[in-house]
Specification:
The complex is a heterodimer of chains A (547) and B (121). Chain A contains 22 helices and no strands. With 547 residues, chain A is mainly alpha-helical. Chain A starts with 13 loop residues before the first helix and ends in a 7-residue tail after the last helix. Chain B is mainly α and 121 residues long. Chain B has one domain. Chain B has a two-stranded antiparallel ribbon. In chain B, α2 runs antiparallel to α4. The longest helix of chain B is centred in the last third of the chain and has 38 residues. Chain B is elongated, with a radius of gyration of 23 Å. The two termini of chain B are 22 Å apart. In chain B, 31% of the residues are buried. The chains are: A mainly alpha (547), B mainly alpha (121). Chains A and B meet through α5, α6, α10, α11 and α13 of A and α1, α2, α3, β2 and α4 of B.
């Protein structure tokens, strides 16, 4: 697995890099202050007033999804190990297919601000909200620590700012986006980041392909030749020697997206189910193209730089992309090389800044809306109180994330935490969410046991895995680095056992019809457009227009 | 018969909609949606599942060259990327076409089960 850590690197264009980075920071903070002026209700803060279009939301989803690990980590892994480096990328891309088919529209039609709203629609709201909030906050904590460690390490390596200061800078920017601008600012920051990232990787990939006469076969041939690993470079096994581990990691990334709270929350920002579907169309288009470009960059690094890339990119290959950019631009000391290095480094920084904002907002939503608003105040809090509680929660979660990131240190394995995040999401959140929308008999105990068993299974198995186990790898009680292949079935099994033990729950059975109709048609969803559509159609006796 | 159903138990009711009556006329929409979803999910599961299993247990096959450095594994990766686009595009088309028409029919038939006074809750 890759380590987003990091050799000390010379930074020939340090001033230029910082300049570009500050410009991006100024633009995103400007947007945040603009967004802050428009926040008047809880819906504005948590769901951007449900005024985000499908295309905008799709770009924001791509922005949420394409982290530093996706850009620098995958290109570095492909440089080092060829095909296997792409496994997490293709699995993550494909995860949007089941997300679209199973959850996206249903989330939009049945949800309000958080994932727990969907569960609470037909189950005993208090208990499932608390269980869901705990799971969401665990995922957020892992994600924030992973990305903060990545941020600190990368900024230190590329610009020379100390690790602790880098972590504080990124955390401060992220907290400003979320506390002041809520979902609207977070959305626009993600959109800007996605556009910059796409522009950066597209430029690099086209430049690489141009070096090989736009013939991808020549690029692949050259990369395989210079890898020194022959045919194995183009096939599986170099990153994941354990066969089951390869399958488990693929499963974690393919199903983890369906339980990531910040991705699910994005479907609540659009006006209707049609926009939610279109969001996925845009996201899949952008993310698919992005990963193809990243593959070209990784393979291009091997083909162009050869073993020199090992020295420049570090043991993990994570710094390959900026140094490949420098080489493409004319090499160290040249104007073109320095400018391209600075631009790609700044794009990487922006990637890091934005990626944690969404997940922190999701965790704050769970704390403020699900726990404070619905459980502690029993729905009696005002919207202003809920927004303020959310802002306090953001500050607490951010502070905890910074402390943990500083305690973990820059040598902590970032990819391990990212993989665990996906495993926890796939094991704890996905099973109860899916079953609450599709299984009539599903009940409150099933949801609570499912969340608890999936969460515990993922965390315990990762602690027992070779990545964390203190002894030799072969002595680890659980042999896989990613537990998804075991923990996802445990999550479903927990739901099943809890439901059987919980017996018949009248409220859950009765409200299943509501969930079924609401999820499929959008009737009575927040904004109630489909409802008005139905009445209009009844009056006109003609097919209704787009909602 | 009118069912008053709270939108989230423990929270205040937002609407008066006879969900049970609407659900009765819902079978055609559900059946069509299920058919579409299961077909697309089936294609996804077979293609991606076979890919993962081959990555784990058919490594020499996956490393076999199709054209120089282009191996079976890379070719399959590209095919899966295209498959993701095709499946998503297909579902978007079907959702905006047949599924939407049937959903609108259900809503129109059941407009009498929705109390207009409670609109835009």
């Amino acid at each position: 697995m890759t380590r987003l850590v990091i050799v000390a690197a010379s930074t020939p264009a340090r001033g230029l890099t910082i300049g570009v980075f500050l410009a991006v920071l100024a633009v995103t903070l400007g947007i945040t202050f603009w967004a802050a002026r428009g926040i008047r209700s809880a819906t504005d803060f948590w769901s951007a007033g449900r005024g985000i279009s499908g295309a905008q939301n799709g770009m924001a989803i791509a922005g949420e999804f394409l982290s530093a690990a996706a850009f620098l980590g995958v290109s570095g892994l492909m440089f080092l190990s060829g095909f296997d480096g792409y496994l997490t990328g293709i699995s993550a891309l494909l995860s949007f297919v089941p997300l679209l088919l199973l959850l996206a529209e249903r989330m939009r039609n049945a949800g309000r601000y958080t994932m727990a709203d969907v569960l609470g629609l037909r189950l005993a709201a208090g208990r499932v909200r608390v269980a869901s909030a705990i799971s969401t906050m665990c995922i957020a904590a892992l994600y924030v620590v992973a990305q903060s460690v990545a941020a600190g390490s990368l900024i230190e390596a590329l610009v020379g700012i100390p690790y602790w200061a880098s972590v504080l800078i990124t955390a401060t920017a992220m907290l400003t986006y979320v506390v002041l601008g809520g979902m609207l600012a977070t959305t626009w920051v993600q959109i800007i980041k996605a556009m910059l990232l796409m522009l950066g990787v597209a430029t690099m990939a086209i430049w690489v392909l141009a070096k090989f006469g736009f013939d991808p076969i020549r690029l692949l041939n050259r990369a395989a030749e210079r890898s020194g690993q022959g045919a194995a470079y183009g096939g599986p096994g170099l990153v994941f020697p354990n066969r089951v581990d390869e399958i488990s990691t693929g499963l974690a990334f393919a199903l983890g997206t369906l339980g990531l709270p910040h991705i699910l929350m994005r479907f609540l920002t659009v006006p209707d189910a049609r926009s939610a579907r279109r969001s996925i169309g845009w996201a899949v288009g952008l993310i698919g193209v992005f990963y193809v470009f990243v593959a070209v960059i990784g393979l291009g690094g091997r083909a162009i730089l050869g073993d020199e890339g090992l020295k420049l990119g570090g043991k993990s290959g994570n710094l390959l992309a900026p140094y490949l950019a420098q080489h493409l631009g004319g090499g160290p000391g040249s104007t073109g090389g320095d400018v391209f290095f600075a631009v790609i480094s700044a794009v990487a920084f922006t990637t890091i800044l934005a990626v944690v904002a969404g997940v922190v907002l999701a965790a704050a939503g769970a704390a403020a809306h699900d726990v404070y608003g619905s459980v502690i105040r029993k729905g009696q809090s005002t919207e202003r109180q809920e927004i303020n509680a959310g802002r306090v929660a953001v500050l607490i979660i951010g502070a905890v994330g910074v402390v943990l990131a500083l305690a973990a240190g820059k040598t902590f394995n970032v990819q391990l935490l990212t993989g665990l995040t996906f495993s926890v999401a796939a094991s704890a959140n996905f099973p109860p969410l899916l079953l609450s929308l599709t299984w009539r008999r599903f009940n409150t105990l099933g949801a609570v046991v499912g969340i608890a068993s999936g969460l515990l299974a993922a965390i315990v198995l990762i602690v027992l895995s070779p990545q964390v186990w203190s002894g030799p790898d072969s002595a680890a009680p659980f042999p896989l680095t990613n537990p998804a292949i075991a923990s996802i079935p445990i999550g479903f099994l927990g739901c099943l056992i809890g439901t059987l033990l919980g017996g018949r729950e009248e409220g859950a059975l009765e409200s299943f019809d509501e969930v079924r109709v609401r999820a499929a048609t959008g009737l009575d969803a927040e904004g109630a457009r489909p409802q008005r559509r139905a009445q209009d159609a009844e009056r006109r006796r003609e097919p209704v227009a787009a909602g | 018969m009118e069912n008053r159903v709270d939108t989230a138990r423990g929270e205040s009711a937002r609407s008066v909609i006879r969900w049970h009556e609407i659900a009765q006329s819902f079978a055609r929409l559900e059946s069509l949606r299920r058919r579409i979803t299961l077909t697309l999910l089936g294609v996804f599961t077979v293609c991606f599942g076979a890919f993962l299993i081959c990555c784990g247990y058919a490594r020499p096959f996956m490393s076999r060259s199709v054209d120089g450095g282009l191996t079976v594994a890379y070719t399959w990766l590209l095919a899966l990327t295209v498959l993701a686009w095709v499946l998503v595009w297909t579902y978007l088309r079907l959702s905006d076409g047949p599924l939407r028409r049937v959903a609108d029919d259900v809503l129109r038939l059941n407009a009498s089960h929705v109390d207009p006074d409670e609109d835009d809750a």
